[in-house]
Amino acid sequence: MSISGIGVGYPVWRETGKTQRNNSGIGFANKMAGADTAGSVPAQRTSVRTSALEAYRASTASAVRNVKPAYETYESENYRIVPDNEAGCFDIYNKQGERIGAFDYSDIKVRQDSATGKQFLISEHGTMSYDAVVLDGELKDALQNVMGVETLETEELQGFTLKTHSGTGIQYLVRDGEEGRGGKVLLQSQEDIEKYEALMETYFNKYPSLIHDKNAAYIWADLEIKGLAQHTNNGIVSMGFNGMSYNDNSNYKNNWSVLFSGDTYKAVFDWLQNNRGSIEEMQKFATWQDVFKSIGSHYERVWSDEEEKQGYLNN
């Protein structure tokens, strides 16, 4: 309990004492007369004591609420947990020193997927932005140790769905209702890391006109795993909740873009998951016209400028 917390209640009982002392010289008759409208003197004193007690309890509760936890840095064999006690969150690093996420103190709990039994640590920072990691025994023990608890709170995974990228087998977590907006790729093994690296190298080596460094290639690999991109023979198809587009590596006149609704994105995503291997000319808009017809979805064809439009009409 802090001194400032106690001080909140102090003026109440001090002023009460002043009032009682100032009224001590009032005659009996006056007191009785006052009792008709304000209640008896014992009742007033009881009320005063109750008010003081309530004020003290309120000040104590406020002090408890304002106390911030003071955790210390903790290291295990494969993890380093660094608390930010002012911000109320942990920065978690792997043994390579890579930051794998920032997790609010209030979100340090186990969220278990009922379908697979996998457990996750998720810290939500708002729409389309959240950190997530699969909890292993070592990380769970490390979090329990740094927080000084025997076990972490456990609840069923809700509001998120665990999905698997059909091309690589890498899993990712996406918030329900935000399909087409983002997600969190989960690299759970050395095999996952190798597949992720291989996909990055594909983007980096295959599209030099579109991708100029490996950081960008990693972003595209991440997007493909989450269902927001697809590499083709000659370029990249990118998808989102409100449309999709194609960027050609050698001829910008082959570029195209489409606007559609969120329902269409879901239908396109589901179709692509089941037909990814059968598309030979994914970069051609005509191919997607047939897809839109097959799934019964509506779309609007758009161009970025008149030159691209003329280029499309002339091909």
| Structural class label | alpha+beta
Rg (C-alpha, Å)? 32 Å
Average per-residue pLDDT, rounded, comes to: 79
Spatial strand arrangement across the major sheet: 12-13-14-15-16
Shape: elongated
Distance between the termini: 76 Å
Q: Secondary-structure element sequence?
A: HHHEEEEEEEHEEEEHHEEEEHHEH
Query: Based on DSSP secondary structure assignment, what is the total number of beta strands?
Result: 16
Q: Strand count, sense and closure of the main sheet?
A: 5 strands, antiparallel
Number of contiguous helices: 9
Proportion in helices: 40-55%
Question: Could you please describe the fold and organization of this structure?
Answer:
This protein has 315 residues and is an alpha+beta fold. The chain is built from nine helices and 16 strands. The longest helix has 26 residues, at 41-66. The chain starts with a helix and ends with a helix. Mean pLDDT is 79; it is low at 1-42.
What key attributes describe this structure?
315 residues; disordered N terminus; 9 helices; five-stranded antiparallel β-sheet; four-stranded antiparallel β-sheet; 16 strands; alpha+beta
Quick overview:
This protein has 315 residues and is an alpha+beta fold.
What is the element layout, followed by pairings?
Elements: H1 3-22, H2 28-38, H3 41-66, E1 74-75, E2 79-84, E3 89-94, E4 99-104, E5 110-112, E6 119-124, E7 130-134, H4 137-147, E8 154-156, E9 160-164, E10 171-175, E11 184-186, H5 190-206, H6 214-225, E12 229-231, E13 235-240, E14 243-248, E15 256-259, H7 262-275, H8 285-295, E16 300-302, H9 306-314
Parallel strand pairs: 5-8
Antiparallel strand pairs: 1-2, 2-3, 3-4, 5-6, 6-7, 9-10, 10-11, 12-13, 13-14, 14-15, 15-16
